[in-house]
Write a structure and sequence with these properties.
Largest sheet: 6 strands, mixed
Radius of gyration: 48 Å
Number of helices: 20
Helix content: 40-55%
Number of strands: 21
Distance between the termini: 90 Å
CATH class of the largest domain: Alpha Beta
CATH architecture of the largest domain: 3-Layer(aba) Sandwich
Length: 747
């Protein structure tokens, strides 16, 4: 109860009342928000429950008093019994869910709940509304039927009376008026010689509310039947209570487990409804890391991200710049995490430790206490926390209530005392002396609310590692204080203090510039990493292109030989055959030497500068070395830094008198061909030979003149070029080179 009271005060100070009230609406029955049990197990339970589609439990009543009554052999009322039935039925429903994975935490938990057979049998006797089903107790069914018949008789009798011709002149209306649950008719004076009954009341107009004698008689019978019905129900409840009495241990257990499950299901449903997240990442060193946290009380919050790794966070800076809300936000995140409540946050990138004691000293801006009582209250608060262990405390406007210089000295000592006890502290202050006194302590982290000088408004952003200026004069002007009064205030304030503030402001600006440089540096590092990846991808692409180019050259070589066979005159055939044989010998010799390269076993010697190496399918030379990192230059000219383990040492085999292939270029080789006036077949034959000669000659671009004419020759040439395997592209020549009457061909 004391713990409940403590966190209730904290809820009010952190502006969480509406948020917590919204959460409590998801409970099936009222209870405090704290939950007992192992936090790790409860977190696992919540994570599993979040993945299951289940119905929440119906609203139920607290049953501890009823369990005590049963232990004393008391008899429960039917509605009290049904509250137990609802709980049992809900656990039976959970155990029946097929979507719960076997061996999961929830599955094992439900398997441990064994409902006694007599209790299960009792659940079959009740309707969903709490009524006992028909066919279970004959006497009860008979009495209910009798009551139903008598009530039907009342309706029938009233209908007959209302439609009676004799009574019609005395009826004010034909409605049935209920007076103290009695069915009455509203009649005019003089009715007594037509109908008998009891006058229940009179209307403002002097008419009479009459309970007819026939209806009174039926009502009396219903009353007698109700007495018998209640007696019958009492016997039934007595019998059921006797059964429940034998299972009070189970009922106590299931009642407690229902509260536990109610705690968890309410959290899961609350989180899903409002798109909230649970922070399950914990730290052992009490570091608080928040990513995109939003305080629940704010309508349009600016998310907060902070790495609070020190012991004390001192927040300074502009008035109304969000200092108090930052303080409340940090403490709120710790509070919600402690009680396993979801919040608006990036949970994956956040870490929140657990604290045994959470304390807040936050001034109420509408508080009318004078300075002395405020300071005295603060001293009382400090006296209460000085002995607490495992503490996180937030103090808003720490110097409030007394002389700032005296407060600085006093609070420095108090804060250092708490720091020595490893307390986690968050402080907001407008006074620089306390910040200056504690700035050198490595356990302290500074934070300044940022002010937009150009727009003259707070930005609600924070600069970490800096002491901020209060901007009191600027804030006063923004809220309507005349310029002449602000000018006088600045004169009273003094030039020395203004210079100090300017220094502080410049320091903040330098910090901001440093922060921007760090962001720029991080951006450059990211670009470097991206370029590094691109370079690596380029290497792989070059290796792939190398293989493709190699295959292409081999095919070209073979096709060149075939073209030579076709184009050289018969008298040169013997020379061609001789050259081909020589080429085959050369290729065979070259293959053998490549096999020597390939099959040479990797040297066990350490790779040195100047060694020839292989990296993947590429080869190169080691140009430099630093430890295990080698700087290599590939044969393609690319320079890389690679771990020596990824390199393969290959021998520097020099090929003496490396033979070369020599082919005689075609006679009168030219880069242009004129096809004017030729028939289609003749033009194609000449064009085919022209392209073959150009390939052997090493030309990569030629031009063919065909003229415009009827367009037939142009069409034939286009179709041929589309199918030629060595034509990469072709297009109409520029106007000065023939225009539509010529084609430039890329080989």
């Amino acid at each position: 109860m004391q713990e409940n009271h403590r966190y209730q005060v904290l809820i009010d100070k952190l502006d969480l009342k509406d948020f917590i009230d919204s959460f409590k609406e998801f409970f099936a029955r009222k209870k405090p928000i704290h939950i007992e049990g192992d936090r790790l197990a409860l977190n696992n339970f919540i994570q599993e429950l979040d993945k299951i589609d289940f119905a929440p439990p119906a609203k139920t009543k607290e049953l501890n008093t009823q369990i005590l009554h049963l232990k004393k052999f008391g008899v429960l009322k039917l509605e009290e019994i049904f509250e137990f039935i609802k709980i049992i039925r809900y656990f039976m429903y959970l155990k029946s869910l097929s979507q719960i994975p076997q061996e999961s935490y929830i599955w094992k938990y439900l398997q441990n709940i064994q409902i006694p057979t007599p209790i299960i049998d009792l659940t079959k006797n009740f309707e969903i509304t709490g009524e006992i089903k028909t066919g279970i107790y004959e006497d009860l069914d008979s009495l209910k039927q009798s009551v139903t018949r008598q009530k039907a008789q009342i309706s029938k009798t009233l209908n007959e009376i209302i439609h009676s011709q004799k009574l019609s002149p005395y009826l004010v209306d034909k409605q049935i008026h209920y007076i103290d649950t009695n069915e009455t008719l509203l009649l005019k004076a003089g009715f007594n010689h037509i109908i008998k009954g009891i006058i229940i009341s009179r209307s403002q107009n002097g008419f009479f509310y009459l309970l007819p004698e026939q209806i009174r008689s039926i009502r009396q019978k219903i009353s007698e039947l109700d007495d018998k019905l209640q007696a019958c129900l009492y016997e039934i409840c007595k019998n059921i209570s006797s059964i429940l009495n034998k299972h009070t241990l189970f009922l106590s257990f299931i009642n407690k487990e229902f509260d536990k499950f109610d705690h968890l299901q309410a959290r899961v449903k609350f989180a899903k409804t409002y798109n909230l997240e649970f922070v399950t990442n914990k730290t052992t060193n009490k570091t608080i890391i928040l990513k995109d946290f939003s305080h629940p009380a704010l309508q349009h919050p600016k998310p907060i991200s902070i790495d609070f790794s020190s012991n004390l966070l001192m927040i300074t800076g502009v008035n109304a710049g969000g200092k108090t809300m930052l303080l409340k936000s940090i403490l709120t995140s710790v509070f919600l995490s402690k009680y396993l409540l979801p919040m608006k946050i990036n949970a994956f990138h956040s870490k929140i430790p657990n604290f045994k004691n959470i304390f807040a000293i936050i001034a109420d801006p509408q508080n009318s206490k004078n300075d002395i009582s405020t300071f005295a209250g603060r001293m009382l608060n400090f006296s209460q926390i000085l002995g607490l262990e495992d503490l996180i405390i937030a103090i808003d406007e720490i110097e409030l209530g007394t002389d700032a210089d005296e407060a600085s000295s006093l609070y420095k000592v108090l804060l250092e005392f708490l720091l020595d006890k490893n307390a986690k502290i968050i402080v907001t202050t407008h006074h620089k002396r306390l910040a200056a006194l504690m700035a050198q302590d490595e356990r302290i982290q500074m934070c300044a609310a940022i002010f937009d000088e150009e727009k003259q408004i707070p930005t609600y952003e924070f600069l970490y590692g800096s002491i901020g200026k209060s901007y009191a004069f600027e804030s006063a002007k923004r809220y309507g204080i005349p310029e002449n009064l602000i000018k006088k205030a600045k004169e009273v304030y003094g030039q020395d203090k203004e210079k100090l503030n300017e220094l502080i402001e410049k320091s903040a600006q330098l910090e901001m510039a440093l922060k921007q440089k760090m962001l720029d540096l991080e951006s450059k590092i990211t670009q470097y990493e991206r370029k590094k990846t691109e370079q690596q991808n380029l290497i792989y692409k070059l290796e792939s292109d190398y293989i493709k180019e190699k295959n292409f050259l081999q095919n070209t070589y073979q096709e060149a030989l075939n073209q030579l066979k076709q184009s050289i005159k018969d008298k040169e055939i013997s020379d061609i055959h001789r050259n081909i044989n020589n080429a085959n010998k050369i290729l065979s010799s070259f293959k053998k030497q490549n096999e020597i390269f390939k099959n040479t076993s990797e040297s066990k010697k350490e790779i040195k500068i100047g060694d020839r190496i292989q990296y993947g399918s590429a080869k190169g030379i080691v140009k430099g070395k630093n430890g295990n990192i080698c700087q290599i230059e590939l044969d393609e000219g690319i320079k890389l830094k690679i771990d020596a383990k990824k390199l393969k040492l290959i021998p520097n085999i020099s090929i003496q008198n490396k033979p070369k292939l020599h082919f005689q270029n075609p006679i009168n080789l030219n880069v242009s061909l004129d096809l004017h006036g030729l028939r289609g077949e003749e033009a194609i034959e000449k064009l085919d030979k022209f392209l073959s000669d150009a390939l052997i000659g090493g030309f990569d671009e030629v031009i063919v003149y065909h003229g415009i004419g009827t367009g037939k020759l142009s069409f034939v040439i286009k179709e041929f070029l589309k199918t030629h395997p060595k034509v990469l592209a072709f297009y109409d020549a520029p106007p000065q080179m023939g225009g539509f009457g010529a084609k430039i061909i890329k080989l």
